[in-house]
Amino acid sequence: MCWWVQVIGAPIAAGILFMDGVGGLRGWQWLFILEGCITAIYGIILKVRTNSSPGICIIGSLTCLLAHHACHALTLTFRAYFLNR
Question: Is 50 in contact with 57 (CB distance < 8 Å)?
């Protein structure tokens, strides 16, 4: 991992942990929610990017193909979970 990611990310994470009690949530819950939102947004961007043009990808062809299949598998999993309740 790059050193600058830790230099920037650690103080941000520590600041988020100090949000203890805001909105009735603990600091670690805020950390999980915010990091999860960032990850979900990144996943949506990758899904849109790999679906619209599978041959042209910003992350390399093999990684692009793996991301495309992983997003497809996640979509099927979520559909099965939420629609079969």
Answer: yes
